[in-house]
Amino acid sequence: MRAHILIVGGEPAIANPVSTMLRTHGYSATTAKTEADALRLIREMPVNLVVLDDVVGCPNGVGVLASIKAVNPDLPVIMLTEMGCADELRRGAGSRRQIRPGRRPDARTMAGRRRG
Questions:
Q1: 54 burial class (0-12, 13-18, 19+ CB within 10 angstroms)?
Q2: Cα 31 to Cα 13: distance, rounded to the nearest angstrom
Q3: Torsions phi, psi for 112 (to 5 deg)
Q4: DSSP string of 4-28, one letter each residue
Q5: Percentage helix, strand, coil for the chain under 3-state DSSP, each rounded to 5
Q6: DSSP secondary structure letters along 67-83
Q7: Strands 77-80, 28-32: parallel, antiparallel or unpaired by DSSP?
Q8: What residues pair up with 48 in beta bridges, in sequence order?
Q9: What's the CA gap between 29 and 96, in Å, rounded?
């Protein structure tokens, strides 16, 4: 059985290509535009991973994260955010969760990836 990834929130210009890329790599992927849709899907279907695109900032994204964890505390969630909100994320995810800040690659790294 293929792993099922739920992509929550974000702009369709981001969510749709991400879901297409995941399908290309053999995953099953579904998108949800709202918190309510995401929670309904998590309750109705087997979801192995959630990618939460937090384009609206910490307070809303952390609330969605907390709601997801209330429904399924063991469901892994990758939260994409540009906000510096590690403390808020820990509260939303539960203190036993790891919060790792992402790193933006520099231009040389990106140029090397495009060529190779």
A1: buried
A2: 12
A3: -65, -35
A4: EEEEESS-HHHHHHHHHHHHHTT-E
A5: 45, 15, 35
A6: HHHHH-TT--EEEE--S
A7: unpaired
A8: none
A9: 27
Q: Say if pTM beats, i.e. exceeds, 0.90.
A: no
Give the span between the Cα atoms of 74 and 82, in whole angstroms. Answer: 24
8 — phi, psi (to 5°)?
-115, 130
φ/ψ of residue 100, rounded to 5: -120, 120
Sheet holding 49-53, edge to edge: 28-32, 4-8, 49-53, 77-80
Q: Cβ distance 40 to 13 under 8 Å?
A: no
At 58, give phi and psi (nearest 5°).
Answer: -60, -50
Range in 10-19, 34-43, 72-81 with the lowest mean pLDDT: 10-19
* Chain centroid to CA 109: 24
For 39-75, the pLDDT digits (tens) are: 999 999 999 999 988 654 445 677 888 899 999 999 9
User: Residue with structure tokens 């959630």?
Assistant: 50
